Amino acid sequence: MYRLLCKDGSAKRGEFTTVHGVIQTPVFMNVGTAAAIKGAVSTEDLGNLKTQVELSNTYHLHLRPGDEVIKKLGGIHKFMVWDKPVVTDSGGFQVFSLAKLRKIKEEGVKFSSHIDGRKIFMGPEESMQIQSNIASTIAMAFDECPGLPCERKYMEQSVARTERWLLRCKNELNRLNSLPDTINKHQLLFGINQGGVYSDIRIENAKRISDMDLAGYAIGGLAVGETHEEMYQTLETVVPYLPENKPTYLMGVGTPENILESVERGVDFFDCVYPSRNGRHGNAYTNHGKMNLNNAKYELDDRPLDSACDCPVCKRYSRAYIRHLLKAGEMLGMRFLVMHNLYFYNNMMEEIRSAIEKGEFQVYKKAKLDGFKAGE
User: Fold this and answer.
1) Is there a single domain that holds both residue 318 and residue 357?
2) Which of 19, 48, 135, 289 has a C-alpha 20 to 30 A away from that of 367?
3) Is 91 annotated as a binding residue?
4) For residue 12, what are the domain limits?
5) Which residues pair with 54 in a beta bridge?
6) What's the pLDDT at 100?
7) Of 35, 3, 5, whose CA–CA distance to 17 is shortest?
8) Active site residues
9) CB-neighbour burial class of residue 203 (10 A; exposed 0-12, middle 13-18, buried 19+)
10) pTM check: above 0.90
């Protein structure tokens, strides 16, 4: 499973072995919510952009095309033609953030689809069944992600329920992995630590879920309205209480700066829509900070997005051409920026791994952050 190769301070460098390949950590997981990276980026492209892991979403795939459809077609790897690891988010966050109407009970959550309003029920068992049908490499436990701010009493009740749901997820996935018609009988389960910004709730939850001896542990309920300082403080508080010999996954984070700060605090799995979403809106992440290619100053700029970048876009195309594509409404402009951004993130993770191995992470982090601030 997970092998800790070395540490530099609290920063971890590891390898996570799965049935679909070995993941080198720290790793950024490229988000393909509905089994596709938004921005017309194919799985063939992902391979050329140093992608190790693709992340899709249980809620969205359950609604379209349907997890039973994916199972009949041989599972998500065959469906989207991708032979590396896939993580499926449990759908919990989407149930609580997208569903028009929802009612939480001990059994699970009744909600209305944000697409057509049809009534759906999802609980721990249903989430595991859907993820088993999808046949991802790693399944995430079904949890409640309370919004912030959140009253302490409700947070305590929510976390306790999420712990009970986690045990049900574990038992159900064990059952599903033993069935003869299950596509991926080696599907792994990650639990999710919750507790908002209440340190004592986070710590007690981390202790209890660590005792379940799962394949990995995620920290959820952050990047949902708290400050960056609160997020970093929460990581410093809770990461020491999660198993060092298992992957630690910070869900939904974040900017390059967020990732550098979180790696320093012991996190080694990340995912975020920023690279693709910002790319589709004309923004490029570079070693000299974020650029908005819609700006007029790039109209005659014949330089690549980032002269230090070796991605397929920077090798061939200019800022001026990409700006023209955006202004002309050509999808190619968005595609180029999404490709560049994904490469930038994946390459940065490669650099981070190398820096930790050399014991130079602090030097690397400072140089990277200074570069972001310096601008062009």
Assistant:
1) yes
2) 48
3) yes
4) 2-271
5) 30, 86
6) 66
7) 3
8) 89, 271
9) middle
10) yes
